[in-house]
C-alpha cells in the first residue's frame, strides 16, 4: 500500500455520528501516527535496527533487583498492565487443549426447540444485564449476537455474509436466519434504547450499570422500526414453518414479546402492563432444548477489554422472569407516581419519589432512569407545571401561602415601580441560585441508596451557603416592602418571617435529618454511636419543629389579615398551608420524640456498659467526632452542637427508673403524633398517590414505638430482678444483659434502629 | 480489580477445602519490606494476595506500591521465613489536602488466621504512617467482612461511606477513616483533575473520585475474614 493510502486509510477510521469518543480519539491518533511515521522517515530512513547492544548497555547500569520509576507512571498504568501468558490476565492465552475461538457455526440451521432455548437464554441474559453486569458477560456471549455485531458485518446484518439469499433454505435454516436473527436484532436494538435512556439520566457507571460496549456498535445502520419489520417477517415464517402447534405458539409468544419490548422503549406512551404477561413464556419454556454451545465467554477475546474472559453470571430462568416482572411493575408504578395529580404538589411528588425508591426489591437502574426521564425529560414536571412553578409552589406551600410575594401573578407585573415587580425579581434571582440544588433533591432520591446518603451529606453545606443568599434576598425584600414583624417566641425581641431563609433552612434541616437516618439504614454507625446520632437527630428535628412554629405564627398573622381583605383564593391557600404545617410539625415532633426515646435508651445502655465502644488505641474522642460529623461541621448558620455540648447533655440523665420513665413519656408523645398523622387526609398531608405507603409507614412507626417501649420494660425488668432499678447507673447491669442491633432488613423501619435487649442466661 | 470477597473465593474454580488450621507453636516475626530494592519476598506476597482474586494484579501494581512505600509494607514470617501475612499501603496528599495513608492490601494465610496476625500488621502500618506524619488513614473493606471491620474498628476507624457494588464481583464496601490530627475536616481539598476520556462515563454517568479510584485500582484486597470475632474483640 502506498504511503499516502496508508494515511488516508487511517484517517478514515474516524467514525462519524454521536458516538464513541474513544474510538474517534484512537482513530485520530492512529491517523496522526501514520502521518508522522511517513513524514519522519519519508520512506528512505525506515528499516529495522538492532537495539540489543544498546539495551544491554542500558540494562547494565542497573543493579539486579533495582527498580526505576518515572514520575508519569501512575497507578492507572500499573493496573492496565498485562502479563503475557498468564491465563488470568492475557486474554489471548489459550489453555492447552482449548481453542482460541468457539467451535460453533452460527449459520447452521437449528431445530425449533434449540432456537427457542437461545431466545430464552437471551432474555435471561438481558435481565442479568439490567442487573448491572456488562454486555460482555451477558448478551454479547451469544455467538449469534456476536456475529451480528462483528465489526466486518454490515447492514442488513446477516449471520452469513450475504450468500443465503438466493438459496432455498430448510425449515431449520429459516428458523435461524429469519426467526432467531430477527429476535436477536430486536433485542440488540432494545439494548441500544435502554442504554440511551440510562445515559441521558444520572446514574453511577459500574456501581449501577455498565454502559461499556467493548468497541462494538449496536447495529447502527438499522433502526428500531426495521427491527420490528423483521419480527413481523419472522412471524410469517413461523406461521408456515413445519413445527408443531405448541412450538409455533411458543415462538410467536417470544417474537411478540421482543416486538412489544422494543416498541415500549421507542414510544413512552405505551403501556408496560402488556410486558408483564410472561406467564406464557414461563409455560412454554419447557419446550426449549438446551444448546449451551451457542454461547461462549470466548467472544470476550475479540472485545475491546483488557480483562480476560470472565464467567457468565448464573441466575435461573424463573428468577430472571421474576426480576423482569418486577422491573415492568416498577416502570408502571413510575408512571402512576408521576401522574398529573401527584405532580401538583412538590411535597407530594417528593413523597412519591421516595415511595418509588423504597419499593421492594429496589428498582433497577433502568427503572430509575425511566422515572427520571418522566420527571426531567421536558422542561416541565407535568402539564402546565414548569420546574420553576414547582419550586415556587414549594416556597408558597411552606412559607408564603397567601402572600403576594410568592403569588405567580406578581411575577407577571411589568411596571418597574411596582414593589411586586421589584420583589419578584429578587425572588427570581434567589430561585435561580437555588434551582440546581433544589432539583437535585428530586434527582438524588432516584439514585441508589448509598448515593442518596452521600449526595445528601454533600448537599448540607451547599444549602448552608444558599442560606446566606436567602438572608440577603430576605433583607432586600424587606427593604422594598417591610413584612410583618412579630415578637419573638419568648417575647423579648421582634423578628421577621424571613421567608426564603426559613425555606432554605427547612430543607437543610430536613436533609440533615435524612442523612443521619440513611446512615442508620446503610449500617454506617457502630452500636455505641447510636446514642450520639439519635441525640443529633433529635436536635435537628427540634430545630425543624421550632422553625415550623416560627413560620406558623406568621401564617396565622397573615390569615388574620387575609380574612379582613376579600381575597378568597389566597385565604384558601393559606388555610391549606396551615393544615400542611400542622402535619409537618407533627412529623418533626414525632422524629424528635422517638429519637429522644432512643437516645435515652442507647445512652442508658452505654453508661450501664451493656453497649461498649471497642478499646481503641488510636482513637481520640474529638477526632472520632470530627470523622463522624464531618458533613455537618461546615455549617455556618446555626452550627451543630459541639462535642462538649453533646457530652454535657448526657450527664443530666438520672437513675435507670427515671430514664425509663423519660423514654416512656417520649414514646407516648411520639404515638400521639402518629394518631394525628393517621387522621390526616391525603390532601392535608400531601400524600396523594402514595396513600398506601403513608399508611404502611405509620404502621411501621407505630410498631417501632411499641418495640422501644417493650425493650425499655425488658431492661427495667432485669434491673428490678437484680434490685438495681433505683440505683445509680454506676452499679451497672454489666454481664446481666446483652444487646443486639437488628440489621436494616430486620427492622420495623429501616430508618430506626431499636436495640434488642435480652437477659443473659447465667 | 476484584473480588477480595467471599464470593470470589467461592465462585472461583480454585475453591477447594480450606487447609486445616495450623495449631502448633509459632514464632512470628514482623519485618518491613523496606525500600532498598525488589525483595525476594515479592513472589510470595503476590501469591498470597492473589490467592482469592479472580483477576490478579499485574506485577506493576505491586511494584507501584512497594517501590514508593516499601517502608509501609509489613510482612509476617515464621521461623523458616515463610510468609504468613502481608500489608501494603501508600501515603500521599489526598486531593492536595490532608496527608492520607491508604491501606491497599491486607492478607493472611488461611491456616494461620485467628492469631491476630492481621491486627498486628495493621498496627505496624498505622504506627509507621503516624511516624511519617499522616493526617488520616483510609481504606475500604467489604461490608460482610466482619473480622476485617473489627480489626479496624478496634483501632478507632469509623465507617464513613457505604460504596454500592464497589468490587467487580458486585459486592458492596464500607469506606473506613481514621483521623490522626485535629482539624482535618477543615483542611481544604480540591476536586481531582480527571482526564476527560477516562472511562465509560459518557452520557451523564457520574464520575467521581470513587469511580476513578475504582477504575484505577480496586485495591480492596482485604482478605482477613479468617480472623475470628473474638480475636479482635477484647
Description:
The complex is a heterodimer of chains A (762) and B (234). Chain A has 762 residues and is an all-alpha fold. Among the domains of chain A are: 112-290 and 315-331; 574-761, no CATH class. Helix content of chain A is 58%, strand content 2%. Chain A contains 25 helices and 6 strands. In chain A, strands 1-2 form a two-stranded antiparallel ribbon. A two-stranded antiparallel sheet of chain A has the order 3-4. In chain A, strands 5-6 form a two-stranded antiparallel sheet. The longest helix of chain A is centred in the last third of the chain and has 40 residues, at 568-607. Chain B has a domain at 29-186: Aminopeptidase (3-Layer(aba) Sandwich), CATH 3.40.630. In chain B, 26% of the residues lie in helices and 22% in strands. Chain B has helices spanning 6-11, 42-50, 59-69, 117-131, 146-153, 209-216, 229-233, and strands spanning 29-32, 74-77, 83-93, 99-108, 136-142, 158-163, 173-179, 221-223. Classes of the chains: A mainly alpha (762), B alpha+beta (234). Chains A and B meet through helix 2, helix 4, helix 17 and helix 21 of A and helix 3, helix 4, strand 6, strand 7 and helix 6 of B.
The first-to-last residue Cα distance of chain B is 34 Å
Strand segment count of chain A: 6
User: What is the SS-derived class of chain A?
Assistant: mainly alpha
- Quaternary organization: heterodimer
CATH class of the domain at 29-186 in chain B: Alpha Beta
Shape type of chain A? globular
Strand pairing plus helix content of chain B: what structural class? alpha+beta
Determine the mean pLDDT of chain B: 77
Q: Give the neighbour order of strands across the main sheet of chain A.
A: 1-2
Provide the gyration radius of chain A in Å: 33 Å
CATH homologous superfamily placement of the domain at 29-186 in chain B? Gcn5-related N-acetyltransferase (GNAT)
Give the % helix of chain B: 25-40%
Number of discrete helical segments of chain A = 25
Portion in beta strands of chain A: under 5%
| Regions with little confidence, pLDDT below 50 for 5+ residues of chain B | 1-15, 194-234
In angstroms, what separates the terminal alpha carbons of chain A?
90 Å
Main pleated-sheet profile of chain B: 8 strands, mixed
Domain NAA35-like TPR repeats (chain A): 351-722
Main location (chain A): cytoplasm
Subcellular location (chain A): Cytoplasm
Protein name (chain A): N-alpha-acetyltransferase 35, NatC auxiliary subunit
